[in-house]
Amino acid sequence: MIRRVINEIRCDITAARDRDPAAQGVSSFEILTSWAGVQALLAHRLAHALRGAGVPWVPRAIAYLTRAVTGVEIHPAAEIGTRFFIDHGSGVVIGETAKIGDCVTLYQGVTLGGTGFQRGKRHPTLGDNVTVGSGAKLLGPIAVGDGAKIGANTVVIEDVPPGATVVGNPGHPVRVEGRKLEGPDADWIHLPDPIADAIKALSERIVELETRLASVDGGKADAAKHEKSGIKPRTGRSSAGG
CB–CB of 109/91 below 8 Å? Predict the structure, then answer.
């Protein structure tokens, strides 16, 4: 039992050091005493173990106090794998029937919540190596496949295939072009924007139709209308280091 707890603590500290640039060169003691996400996770592991042992009241009390101190609310019944990391942590909510795989990363403001008042499984299940951006809301008993990436402020209400990237409200799976994503990735700057792509395509189609109409009428199309949509993909250096 003690050996398992020590191993979990070591893995949690390693996850924080590997995925948080601010943790580089920081001692394990400082991470344990200063990283709210790590503290919330360690408290949850204790509460979860006590709940599994049938101890009444105490697990919920630990969860309540942890929320007050760290701003992270994790139900004692939630199942969380190894090498889990919550970056910044404030505002994160993980519901009772949520299940989280190994090597998962959540950013601030993420909600793994339920919908309605149904009983039973009502919270999301996250596979391994999933990354969820800040402010994202995953609602209902959905499944997020291994290696998936959820963009910031995305609202996900349907299953996400393994390896997919989801953006928007409601969330839409999109294909990421360019470099292959490996491990936790925080480059939210270069995510595809399906809404902007659709508007750009419509704008170009309107210009084409106006040009054809002008040629049929024998007139000249307004030169300004021939300009392409000003919506262009973001380029240049990413604030995420990409």
Answer: yes
